[in-house]
Amino acid sequence: MARTLPRVRRTRSGAFQLRLEPEEREVFSHLIEELRGLLGAEDPVLERLFPPGYADDPELARQYRDLVHSDLTTQRLASLQVVEDTLEAKQLDEEQMGTWLTVVNDLRLVLGTRLDVTEDMAEDGIPDDDPRAPTFAVYGFLTWLEWQVVEVLAQVLPEETG
């Protein structure tokens, strides 16, 4: 996946242009389906998406999970649907772009957890002959895309005064 041209930019009309290559859209489609399936499972990789509310008290952690897990899952599934529905879109509004940011971050967290990414790995990468290299390349692409989305969305934030 080439990283030469920016994939996200703000238009003069205030919309956001999303320029993904066909193979990048295909990867997103696959990742969305994979995450959708994971959200209905008990998989340890999801701990980054659903951290315990109370790390030191298992009973309170269970109560918290019982209280919020279903709503958080529903929100994540709705966000995945928005990204899936706009996967072929050339332009997105600000709310859709914010949803893309959420989903890209979730996908990145899941892949990073699965890869057990460390700070050294994030900076230095991994050897091309490592069996995790293709997944790490997708992780790197998601990191790069997330940075672009944040940068473009930050352009519309009001400047601090005082």
Shape: globular
Roughly how many Å apart are the termini? Answer: 43 Å
Fraction of residues in helix: 55-70%
Helix vs. strand class: mainly alpha
Radius of gyration: 17 Å
Domain count: the total is 1
Q: What is the mean pLDDT? A: 89
Strand runs, count: 3
Going across the major beta sheet, what is the strand order?
A: 1-2-3
What are the low-pLDDT stretches, counting only 5+ consecutive residues below 50? Answer: none
- Largest sheet composition: 3 strands, antiparallel
Q: What is the element string, with H for helices and E for strands?
A: EEHHEHHH
Secondary structure tally, helices: 5
Strand content: under 5%
Can you tell me about this structure?
This protein has 5 helices and 3 strands. By secondary structure, it is mainly α. A 3-stranded antiparallel sheet has the order 1-2-3. It is globular, with a radius of gyration of 17 Å. The mean pLDDT is 89.
Descriptive labels:
3-stranded antiparallel sheet; 162 residues; 3 strands; 5% strand; mainly alpha
Summed up:
Helix content is 59%, strand content 5%. The protein is mainly alpha-helical.
Topology:
Blueprint (H helix, E strand, L loop, with lengths): L7 E3 L5 E3 L3 H18 L18 H28 L5 E2 L1 H22 L3 H6 L8 H22 L8
Helix pairs in contact: 1-2, 2-3, 3-5
